[in-house]
Amino acid sequence: MTWLITGGAGYIGAHVARAMTDAGERVVVLDDLSSGVVERLPEGMPLVRGSVLDRGLLDETLARHEISGVVHLAGQKQVGESVEQPLRYYRDNVHGLTVLLEAVVAAGVRNFLFSSSAAVYGVPDVELITEATPCLPINPYGETKLAGEWLVRATGRAHGLSTACLRYFNVAGAGAPELADIGVYNVIPMFFDRLTRGEDPRIFGDDYATPDGTCIRDYIHVADLADAHLTMARKVAGSDSPGDLTVNIGRGEGVSVRELADLVGEVSGLPLSPVVEPRRPGDAAKAVASAALISGELGWEAKRGVREMVESAWEGWCLRHPGAGRH
Q1: How far is residue 100 from each of residues 48, 148, 264, measured CA to CA in Å?
Q2: What is the chain's alpha carbon radius of gyration, rounded to the nearest angstrom?
Q3: Beta strand ranges found along the chain (DSSP E)
Q4: Domain 2-171+220-249: top CATH class
Q5: Helix 96-107 / helix 55-64 crossing angle, nearest 10 deg
Q6: Cβ atoms within 10 A of the Cβ of 135, count?
Q7: Could you state, in order of their start, the residue ranges of all structural domains in the chain?
Q8: pLDDT, tens digit, for every residue of 214-258?
Q9: Among residues 11, 89, 141, 219, which one is catalytic?
Q10: Is residue 208 among the annotated active site residues?
């Protein structure tokens, strides 16, 4: 079968595309390249440049490439930006998904994986977040992901699709230096960016009810995340009857922001003295996934630890910032 990966030239999408291709799956990428990078894609992989908002392009792509399954990763994903631009987020993330699903149903595609997020949970006060934890998102980004899940499941039930929603926790690392995250939106590249500029990293709040006072998060290596997509895609495609599976993608282990900062200092070899600033609104003290469901259903478990995430991310950062380690 042939899979269409929307957003497949992005940071996560390129890892998914490579993992599926390396495993022998046929892959076509659809990406508007607003944040994607063509050079991330394996040589010879078909790339359709365009948006999921373009129904005509979707119809043509699904038919021409005889697509039998879709992995939908395209969309907007910055929490702060979603608060400032909710209309853009609902248009791209919800309306775009609607247009894509309309095309999928019309083309008779029967397998659909949706890139969701732990942001659907909001800030639950629990030791481990399970898939049964109430979803109470606190920003437009999380709202659009939850609405997307509803839409995917409803479409699957109504039209006989096999669907899956993957709720990512904090994604980090790189499967190869050239695939590294080039944005400065997530905590590890934010640390790298400030270190590279000779500035101290920032920690937002050190008075939380945690062992060292800083927030605790669950980090997942992007290569493990890509492997989870491959495993889920094969599960969905191999199903005898339509169904839905919603799973957390995490390690089930928490790492504090201060611990992460210390590890960044060790890996980079650069002097690091984090500056503590006030808490950010909406930050939970602790957000750690239970990964028991995906382990039980698919036999999937994360293989890589936080040190490997930081080391691989630093290698990728240095590839694009050759003078990064010279301070």
Answers
A1: 14, 11, 40
A2: 19
A3: 2-6, 26-31, 47-49, 69-72, 111-117, 162-168, 170-172, 202-204, 216-217, 219-221, 244-249, 255-256, 275-277, 286-287
A4: alpha beta
A5: 40
A6: 19
A7: 2-171+220-249, 173-217+251-326
A8: 999 999 999 999 999 999 999 999 987 788 999 999 999 999 999
A9: 141
A10: no
